Amino acid sequence: DPPHVPSLNPCALYSRELTLTEAALEHEIYINFEGVDSCFYLFVNNRFAGYSQVSHSTSEINVTPFLCEGINTFRVVVFKWCTGSYLEDQDKFRYSGIFREVYLLARDKAHIADLYCRQSINAKYTQAVLKVEAELTGKAQIDYKLLDPKGREESGGSITLDGSGAFEMLVGNPRLWCDEDP
Predict the structure, then answer these.
(1) Each residue of 168-180: b (16+ CB within 10 Å) or e?
(2) CA of 95: how far to CAs of 15, 98, 117, 166, in Å?
(3) What is the C-alpha separation between 69 and 87, in angstroms, rounded?
(4) Cross-strand pairs, 30
(5) What gap in Å lies between CA 69 and CA 21, rounded to an integer?
(6) Following DSSP, what letter does each residue of 102-143 receive, concatenated?
(7) Cβ atoms of 120 and 171 closer than 8 Å
(8) Strand pairing partners for 119?
(9) pTM of the prediction?
């Protein structure tokens, strides 16, 4: 009955315990689900931590506020049907559950959350600029370098960003793409 989710919606419960040290909790801890069909609710130490219904892409949830030193319990309730089921129903069997890797990632408190790269080139195709816009979760120093096809440094530098910012790298005589020599 698209797009309605059935009132009788089969589900599965996955449960795992993991021991974390004090040193581990000095980082931001994320849990990554690389594939869960169709949707899931995540509970960490019996507290709701997140929801996702993007079954064939990675779902990443920051679980740091829910963790404690010692034993931590992760429970995932996976449902067979969700509103997204009707968007992902071409040429597939309806086998629900966790079907790809699940893992924890520990990142520094201040880390890069997102990058956006734009390039521009002058009218004579002799100089290009690569502009990088970065979003961080705090204040951090970013060291960067751009290498040419032979591994030599073309441009580079260092910048301290707090929250977000941008930097540019210049490329002299860029090697342009063509179908004979991509």
Answers:
(1) ebebeebeeeeee
(2) 19, 10, 38, 44
(3) 40
(4) 62, 105
(5) 5
(6) EEEEEE-SS-EEEEEEEEEE-TTSSEEEEEEEEEEEEEEEEE
(7) no
(8) 130
(9) 0.79
Amino acid at 81: W
Name the token pair of 22: 């004090």
Per residue in 88-137, pLDDT (tens digit) is 666 677 778 999 999 999 999 999 999 999 999 999 999 999 999 999 99
Integer-rounded Cα radius of gyration of the chain:
22
Amino acid symbol at 70: G
Give me the pLDDT at residue 83, please.
Answer: 84
Q: Say how many residues make up the chain.
A: 182
Closest CA to 144 of 171, 117, 163, 169: 169
Which token pair is 157? 């530098």
Kindly state the DSSP code that residue 16 receives in the 8-state scheme: E
Which amino acid, 3? P
Chain-centroid distance of CA 97 in Å reads 20
| Cα–Cα distance, 116 to 11 (Å, whole number) | 38
| Start-to-end CA span in the chain (Å) | 48
d(CA 105, CA 107): 6
Q: 176 by DSSP, 3-state: which? A: coil
